[in-house]
Amino acid sequence: MIVDTAGHDPYCFVEFYEHRHATATIAAMNGRKILGKEVKVNWATTPTSQKKDTSSHFHVFVGDLSPEITTDDIKAAFAPFGKISDCRVVKDMATGKSKGYGFVSFFNKWDAENAIQQMGGQWLGGRQIRTNWATRKPAPKTTNETTNTKQLSFDEVVNQSSPSNCTVYCGGVTTGLTEQIMRQTFSPFGQIMEIRVFPDKGYSFVRFNSHEAAAHAIVSVNGTSIEGYVVKCYWGKETTDIVSPIQQFFFFFFFFKWRLGFLV
């Protein structure tokens, strides 16, 4: 947000990955009221200097990036595979820090395929990176349906389910879903007790040791990209925890004691 010291209204810039998404957003947001004030939305530059439309190009998702990796770093790493039309590391808007993934766009499909095959598992900085085809987000809707995807706060999420519910549903990864990927994604938010992965259905359940840890995970991961897919996270169905070996022992002990007593 940029505040004009001369007393004019504050303003900001929003950069989209695709030209068509920016066009749809202008149509949907221009003239709408935010916090009681009507906003004006328009192109930040003249049409001659607008960003090139890369919607017909071939986009590669690059994941597991080290925090220090920049757009120039991934561009240099992928440049040997062909002509790049666009490249960027995705950053958190609030902190300006890398989210740990980015995108590389190629003019030619063969170059993108070759990059995915050759760069997957290669070291970039201090980590082995993951590569896959990027999944494009749908264009912004022009109705009130957009409010369904608003970013929820921790207070909202933590009160959506009972305090005993510690299970997170994560869906939308239609290919390449593994327990390891889920563990890498969710382990920063707390101790994980159990992970159940359903690769053929594209979703998984992650059970934490606390309700608060699960809530933090939902707030942080919902709407982010995993393996190039934008995922949805919300509370999983609350179920009884898996019976521990000690619980099993006492169950069978008292069961057979009851049976023997019954037969005597």
UniProtKB/TrEMBL annotation:
GO terms for biological process: apoptotic process. Pfam families: RRM_1. Gene3D superfamilies: 3.30.70.330. GO terms for cellular component: cytoplasmic stress granule; nucleus. InterPro entries: Nucleotide-bd_a/b_plait_sf, RBD_domain_sf, RRM_dom, RRM_euk-type. The keyword Repeat applies. Residues 58-136, 166-238 form the RRM domain. Its main location: cytoplasm. It comes from the Eukaryota. It is found in: Cytoplasm, Stress granule; Nucleus. Keywords: Acetylation, Apoptosis, Cytoplasm, Nucleus, Repeat, RNA-binding. PANTHER family: EUKARYOTIC TRANSLATION INITIATION FACTOR 3 SUBUNIT G (PTHR10352). This is Nucleolysin TIA-1-like. The gene is LOC115051983.
